[in-house]
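REQUEST FORM: STRUCTURE PREDICTION
Request ID: SP-0412
Submitted by: Lab K.M.
Chain count: 1
Length (residues): 253
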Amino acid sequence: MSNADRHRLIAQAVKESGSATVPELAELTGASDMTIRRDLDTLAAQGALERVRGGARTLLLRGEEPPFALRAHEAAEEKRRIASEVSRLIADGETVLLDSGTTCLEVARLLRGRRITVMPLSLQAIHVLSDASGPTTLMVPGGRPRAAEGALTGPLTLASLAALRFDTAVVGCCGLSAAEGLTAYDLDDAAVKKAIITSARRIIAATDGSKLGHTAHAYVGPSALVHTLVTDATAPADEVAALEALGTVVTTA
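STATUS: Completed
RESULT:
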């Protein structure tokens, strides 16, 4: 395989997967680790990818959100563990604001029946919590649901958030990194997340490790706004350390 062919193969693999390690690329191309490291340095200098410790990652932003139905089946067990830890962090008597997304939907299932006041920002979570028995107080915001997502957005949602204050907000992540902050796939979703952060005293970000170190195109705010991050064992150690250095408490479920 020529250098040019190998470079094309490496660049395509990193673009499609988002990131790749040196051993993975060596196995893909049949080249040595040393050759792959030189190739990555060359491609990084050309602006084809970003060199990171142990491999490379794409420079393209993750601007397209996978469908909710597909995400609901991804890392399902990890999301349940994360949700369990988030639920443990929420005390009885709290007022809780619950973002949209698949991980936050798992949190909603665990909060059902708890002695809390909760306002979910998705139709799915509203449905789950509307069946709650016992002392749970459900508050329903206004808004327009995004097609196939159920996430509530728009002026009525923003007005609902502006009118209230919460003890804790549980925020889902499209992307979170120490360098690029908290990001979303959609500008409307980013506006809602900004309003969530303004309306709550404590921000808990709940996400599996695949979202850490990734960046979507709609900026929400710096990662320092997140007081606590609950993630799983797949979270990149270097990104976890960088977030902790900025003051975020990271818990692995």
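NOTES: The mean pLDDT is 91.
Reviewed by: T.R.
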